[in-house]
Amino acid sequence: MARGTGRVLRLLEPWTTGQAILYGTLAVGVLDGLAAIVTFGLRGTPPPRIFQGIAVGLLGRASFEGGWGTVVLGIVLHFTVALGIVTTYVLASRIAPALARHPLALGPLYGVAAFFVMNLVVIPLSAIGAVVLRWPGSLNGLLIHALLVGPPATIAAAKAFAGRKR
After folding, report:
1. What is the reported pLDDT for 165?
2. Residue spans per domain, the chain
3. Which conformational region is residue 3 in: left (phi greater than 0), alpha (psi within -120 to 50 degrees), or beta?
4. Which of 22, 37, 124, 143 is exposed most, by the fewest CB atoms within 10 A?
5. What's the pTM?
């Protein structure tokens, strides 16, 4: 076996539930975070302010005056939400295995569901309060969730399910 080939082969092996949650969370958090940086960056918002905006959900508007501490808090909160999104799907797929059998078909649907749960439940319960979804402005968020949030979560569940006896 060529040097390094063993590592590549291990990536092809099924994941444990813990690995699926960890890798799925990292994928969702990084992809969604990069999408936010690009999307809001095109509108002139610097990356630190984006993550302070996430921390507003916990601290209110004072987050914008918190410096790097609230930037880090925003990043932690962002990955905590990603953890919740991935964990929910991975664990649900253990109860309903059909969820793990079609990750590419169900990923965009799960991403759209995550978008609506975030905007209609989670954010209104935070210090941000109720939000008004404006069209077509919300279309960008829907697309990001359909392409970059849902699919990594469903693929992670599929990788964990692949290792289970059916």
Report:
1. 55
2. 15-161
3. beta
4. 124
5. 0.90
